[in-house]
Amino acid sequence: MTDRGQAPVAELHGVGPQVASRLKALGITCELDLLFHRPLRYEDRTRIVPLGRVRPETRVQVEGRVVHQEVVQRRRRMLLVTLADDTGQLTLRFFRFFPSQLRMYREGNRVRCFGDVRFGPQGFEMAHPQAQVLGKGEPPPLPKHLTAIYPVTQGLAQATLAKIIDAAVDRLLDGEIRLADPLGSSESPPLQEALRIIHRPGPEENLDALIDGHHPAVQRLATEELLAHHLALTRLNQARARQRAYALKPDEALQEKLLGVVGFEPTGAQRRVVGEIMEDLGAERPMRRLLQGDVGSGKTLVAAFALLAAAASGRQAAIVAPTEILAEQHYRTLSQWLEPLGIEPVWLAGKVKGKARREALARLAGEASIAIGTHALFQEGVEFRDLALIVVDEQHRFGVHQRLALAAKGSEGVRSPHQLVMTATPIPRTLAMTAYAGLDISVIDELPPGRKPVTTVVLSQGRREEIVERLRRALGEGRQAYWVCPLIEESDVLEAQAAETTAEELSAALPEFSVGLIHGRMKPADKQAVMDAFASGKTALLVATTVIEVGVDVPNASLMMIENAERLGLSQLHQLRGRVGRGSEQAACVLIYKPPLGETARKRLETMRETTDGFVIAERDLELRGPGEVLGTRQTGMLRFRVADLARDADLLEPVKSLAESLDVAGADVVIERWLGGAEQFVDV
Ligand SMILES: Nc1ncnc2c1ncn2[C@@H]1O[C@H](COP(=O)(O)OP(=O)(O)OP(=O)(O)O)[C@@H](O)[C@H]1O
To answer: Distance from the CA of 314 to the center of ligand 1, in angstroms?
Structure first.
């Protein structure tokens, strides 16, 4: 029993290599993934709204005859078109236009337009509608269902993606793609019907529920997805129960030496957690432990103790981080700490090529005891002599997939490595138990001494000049600052551009200080150079996109401005703010928002002003993460689910457990294969 129609997208009609690679960026590699790509929202093109009945702040489809066309000269040339029908008139406004549009909107032409209505100088108007000219005969028929709008990515147009998905939905409804439905009638609606509703809802469907995910069709898919994760984790745990690991014993003399180099005393919480980890490492059962510690709580030192135990036992340990910036940060800190102990870590990331790579590989297969890097450490061709411990600095970037892959890496040998997963955002307990089922949990619930909570103020962007003045004063006192420009559009190109523009503006406004710029589209070496300049104090101000959200540790930086703060989720704001207040200086964070502020955004910013406690923030985040917060969901990313959302679907977890028990092995295979793409191959050891 498998799903028929699992063609790789590259084999589909109309999908060339370029589109295929863009689809991959969206997590779509086979035809089935297209069906599971959930729309962001829907547009109602099933009906025509009479011009006399359009209302502002709505998005509608209208039809009418052009009764007037005019090019007016304001700051630039604008095209104004008046449409009329029997009930009234509507203005179309084009701030930029092509000559072809003058022909398209020639007086007398009939056009069908779709767009946002707002109140303008000429009454109701629509700016830059999507439009089609209607011929003389019967107008083209209206669709019977709503039009789905999908999340896209840079370089992939909505129309292209919609067409490809549409074809897949056609094939599903024609019976060419057949989906096994192991849950059968126990869940309603049936799988195929659920997919139909999600991609092509009739006008009668509850759209809000479809968008926010409470609709039975979405819940049906979410149930199956959670089930897939549950089944995969159960299998993983079963496999683990049979695994054995090498017992690793700490060397007290080395530990003392490490503390001497590090130069501070561990907090009580760090000591306790190190104790828990040492107990696990000392056993022959592989450790599977989640280390939770708020931003700046000192997880790195705890990791260092674990790594040291492996080295002291004559075996190998690896620490992996999700981004190069973060991995390099670890490399720098840990090298500083470990080299005086005679341990020289190996550095490996994707960008390490040629001779350097060959050397790194030789050391991993040979004398090295500690490896630091990105996921490149676990790619084909990397062989460890004796990997006994893996520390994953997850920061919420890795999902179950990767954890399974890591487990697989260790399972090749006779013994499995111990695993420590570190995470910075505190996860409410109920969620932690699901997202990290099968892991033991340690919590660092104390910050290093002398930390003063970051003072947070919330200001409207109208007060930018004042904010820049404040920045000038702080920099003048020798402090360092971050200026964060987060994602405004769903595109890293635009994000990078926004950051570049901001950096130019700030350089011009603050000529007496040196301003650095870092964003995700820069080459790793350039990023590193910028980070080094900032860490060494050469640059006073670092303009950054949210690439700095995780793990960056520059204790002298004590001021952070976050633009468009209203767009960010709470846990992301918390992560970002955690970059300051890491030294003994009183730190401040300015959250700059663009009015008007919605209710949820206002509550979020208030929460940030009121507390710096990661657990309080995480709980509040769960309460507040309202429907349709696509950015929020994407960026808080507890676990990368396609449809399910742990905050929304917590009540599905119990039913999922009983479903799992009622499913036979073949059914479980189908579900795991479908949602986790054959992850079970990693699980069976
Ligand atoms: N016990 C301690 N006493 C004083 N300073 C400490 C202590 N433990 C850690 N630090 C310092 O606190 C800062 C934060 O530690 P670290 O980078 O390990 O935090 P983290 O838990 O990894 O946070 P994040 O998730 O934000 O990266 C570092 O500069 C570190 O050297």
So the answer is: 27
> If you take atom 30 of ligand 1, which residue's CA is the nearest one?
298
Residues of the chain with CATH 3.40.50.300: 213-449+627-685, 455-611
**pLDDT tens by residue, 227-238:** 988 888 788 777
267 CB less than 6 Å from ligand 1? yes
The pTM for the full model equals: 0.63
Q: Please state which of the ranges 16-25, 99-108, 183-192 shows the lowest mean pLDDT.
A: 183-192
Is the domain defined by 51-134 classed in CATH 2.40.50.140? Answer: yes
Cis peptide before 189 (omega within 30 of 0): yes
What pLDDT score does 494 carry? 66
User: Which residue, by CA, sits nearest to atom 15 of ligand 1?
Assistant: 298
Distance from Cα 167 to the centre of ligand 1, integer Å? 52
What is the model's pLDDT at position 425? 65
Determine the length of the chain: 685
Q: Whose CA is nearest to atom 18 of ligand 1?
A: 298
Q: What is the mean pLDDT of residues 393-397?
A: 63
Answer yes or no: are the C-beta atoms of 491 and 154 closer than 8 Å: yes
Which tokens hold the place of 49? 């709204």
Q: List pLDDT tens digits, range 291-311.
A: 988 878 899 999 999 999 999
Point out which residues pair with 590 in neighbouring strands. 457, 561
Does ligand 1 come within 6 angstroms of the Cβ of 295? yes
**Quick one: average pLDDT of 614-629?**
63
pLDDT-derived band at 630 (thresholds 50, 70, 90) equals: very low
- pLDDT beyond 60 at 2: no
Atom 22 in ligand 1: residue holding the nearest Cα: 299
Architecture of domain 213-449+627-685: 3-Layer(aba) Sandwich (3.40)
Write down the pLDDT at residue 628: 28
Ligand 1 near 447 CB (within 6 A): no
CA distance 25 to 646: 23
Which residue's CA is minimally distant from atom 2 of ligand 1?
448
Q: What is the pLDDT of residue 633?
A: 32
Ligand 1 centroid to residue 301 C-alpha, Å: 7
Q: Report the topology of domain 455-611.
A: Rossmann fold (3.40.50)
The residues near 537 (Cβ < 8 Å, ≥ 6 apart) are 480, 556
CA–centroid distance, residue 297 to ligand 1 (Å): 5
Asked if residues 617 and 586 have their Cβ atoms less than 8 Å apart, the reply is no
- C-alpha pair distances (Å), 186 with each of 223, 602, 671, 680: 11, 42, 15, 24
Q: Does the beta carbon of 266 lie inside 6 Å of ligand 1? A: yes
In the chain, where does the domain assigned CATH 2.40.50.140 lie?
51-134
- pLDDT at res. 402: 47
CB of 422 sitting under 6 A from ligand 1: no
- ipTM > 0.90 (yes/no): yes
Contact residues for 249 (Cβ-Cβ < 8 A; gap 6+): 281, 282, 309, 312, 313
Measure the N-to-C terminal CA separation of the chain; round to a whole number of Å.
23
